[in-house]
Amino acid sequence: INCTKEALISADLTLRISFEESERSTCCDSCTCYGDPRCVSFSGYFESWLVCDARAPREGGVNGEHARCVISEEKCRTQRDHDMNLCQWRSLKEIDDDKWTVGLHGSRCSLNESSSELWMLMYEADSYKIEVNMGERGTIFNTKLTLGSDEYLINADDCINKGKSGSWKANGKSVTELPTYFDMIKEFDGAYDNIWRISDPVTRVSTKIRCTATYVEGKDGAPGQWGLSRLNIEEVSEPNPDGRSNVDGFCYTNDMTKRGTTSNTDLVETDQGCTRHNKHEEEVNAAREMCQSSFLQHGGLSGCYASFCSEFYFPNYDSYDSCIVGLMNDPRLGFCRAMRKTTTDIDECLGFIEDNGWSGALAKYVEMNSVNPENEACISNIEGFPKELLPCENGVLLQYLADAQDPDSWTTYAAIPSSRPPCNGRINANAIDHYELFTHAVRIHQCSKNSSCIAAEFCDPIQGVAVDISFSDASLDRPDDPCPNPPTLCGSEKITVPIPELEDETVAIDDISFGSCCPLRDTPDIIESDCDASEDFSFCRTATLESSLCEQNSVDRVCSEESLEDAILNVTVRFQEPSSRLCCLSCTCYGDPRCRSFSGFYDVWAICDAREAVSLKRQWCKIKEDVCNNIVDHAGNPCVWIEEKGNEDWKVSLKGSQCQPNPNSPPSYLLMYQADDFKLEVIQEERGVIQEVFIEMDKVNVSLHAEDCLNVNSIDDDFPWKIYSGTDFSVLSKSVKVFEDGGNDIDIIWVVEDVKTGILSRIRCTATKDGDGRGRAHINVEAVVEPNEDYKSERQNLDGFCYTNDLKKTGSHQITDDIIAGNGCQARNRDEEVLAARVICENESINANGVNGCFTTFCSRAYFPTYASEEECLKEINNEPKRGFCNAARTNPDEARECMDAIEDFGWEAGASRYLASVSDSTCVTRNQLPKSLTTCQPGIVLQYLKDERFDDTWTDYIAFPSDVRICGAMSFNKAEDSVLFTHKIRLKQCDVPSTCSANVCTTQPGFEASIMLNGIEFL
Question: What is the pTM of this model?
């Protein structure tokens, strides 16, 4: 049978899988004793025996459910222990009465010193026996376990302090080595508790013992402490309850054989006395319900949360770990965040817990969450499955036998959790991407839960699973290429590179090059090609080797494994210096607004600009009320000063200026550009900030308001544009994206292209972030792009600032004009260096002494490519922080200017955020630091290989070369790690940056030169 990838190109493997719930809740009988102790027998009978139980209603309270319990000295002196001796009231000289804590020191009411040790037989059957030794309150401090002829004793303090090597004594002697059926584990790294699991090989009775203590929170900021060590017998599991002899003990008889005074405990436990109170009652009650473990104590919280989160962290938490942290910080909020997404639904969940308790909440939300389609709790493709199950997670493993000669070489291909099964119960795989599943033996592998899991009890049933695997070899119906002959980037020809002959064990290809170009101007219109336009269509150019370097079907380039052992493939990429000349005409208005025309003319129209120098000695600008009261807005009406409590904390970037246009004035309209049938006009508000944009085109007139733009719930469902004439708005091509450089994540960018004129507009809806919220929304018209360099002679109906260089300002604008001309107050103050350094180096503690060190560090990594050296960058940023920073952040002069204006308008923290993360690292990068692929807005080229030569759409990224980083010489590849580059066709691919990205759409696409050299090769 031919099982090559080529032969299996049309093969398909389908795995159908469904998980089944067991009708049985348990596989054996289970018994437990924990805490004071509280015990549950095999039959489910609950009993509690608190020796010397001195609980009584708090002073001033009354008997009943509203009186909290306290341990009473008066009550203690009336109680008798198991030997009928009077209980004793404990006191310690080193502990004041008001500082005595039960969790740390135990109960003050304790057994009489003359009384014997109290042992209770928990269970005995055949050769198995377990007895517990109870101290104050009945807390278990020692446990005796008899297995056959051997008697083992575990002490709580030894277990906690000595761990695995010193917990047990065997037949009265300390031992460090125990039989293999003794196993100690921790629920997670760093856990306080030690858990022992012992499986008796003779009777098969299993025992789970937790060594733990109560954690007591510190007061007034003091750290918490762990109290007295104790043992919880979490499980005695009997797999054969009907086939035993010599059976005795509470687990079997339901009788603890209590002695002494027990009536007080009986009253309290049946809620007829005072009401029990546990400082950690909320956390413990939550965990007991979440993990269905009635004996769980505070020490087991983390393990329980781990079990819960393995089932329910997805999709509302980013990770399994963040779910655990959420529950640790606040059990109610953490639980509700796992169950629900929106704030409203989370608040409803919190209220439900308050009203109905944890039991009711678990019954409602966990059941609903398991079937709630909004949770998307299924995985749609095989690549989405993890490689292993999380700790305590139910599921199965899909495995293949890596080596047919080695039965131990089963390798996990995908882990399939039962909480996130395949969507529609199906997993599909093809031979090209998942070859191992077609050529190796496969199996479904299922194991019991990890023994560290709080919910992994001995008697838990294993979840059933039904699996069906089918294989087909039907020819795949590959759809026709929607774009068989796409336009190439800048109209460049696709280069097919011939492979020269071998010389001195070297194949050298060094004539690959593309020149710099202007994508917007030089790329052919997609309408003129045979392609369907799409939002995400990009234009590319490629240089492709005519065949693979090792061509097995050729006569002279056949490679053997031996011939490739020492072969090295070197790929060198050199980008041409970027051109400072823009390749088309672009106009912008942003911020107050600050506008730049097609010719580069710069002007600002800040309506009601009330800035003035703080004083004659301090010339930096401040918005002043007295200035505001003496200027007029665009309509000639007096500007208005906005009063608010706490004006000293007024943040202009969040609330706008306190000096605003008169509310009785009409809107201020600013015509940006008009040509032929195209028109773009904006409405200004306080300071001139743009609130709305109007666009007229051939077949439709539309408007967009800043708040409408940012307030949409889903950009795919909500359409914020208003259409005030026409019906054809297909020309609106929208794009929503998180800022590609890691900055502001609330921005929405719209790109609108007028098909008739070819004029393109890029509009950013934005706001200043403020914690989880934001300030006032506004619009930046980042670019109005005129693609026709001869527009002045070939366009009609020309008007607007972009063309005329005239904002047609009205009202009081002399203050703004003076500041632009350098005759007014100064935007920079003497503290700017410190403010800049704190933002640039992300360190709020920097003072004046740390500024130079910060700037030096910044320039050492960010000087390239704008500055020729670190020293040049440092000189610039010390002289003028805004200019130095922005020139490093943006190589294009216009974008650098926008960066400076943003900092001036909104301050360093808000203004620099969108530019900071994009600052490139000037140090050269090695192969291991290069990404596999470029991000959407990252310029550069990609080295690709053709996965399947039969289909041209199987080109796959192997390594990317971003153009904004320096690469450390040639990148080297070898056959052992990079075999596909030797045996498949390879190519270099360069694409344009989409117009939705923040880079200037008129920026020149950098050209590049590349060489490919194969050294140390001998062809057969």
Answer: 0.46
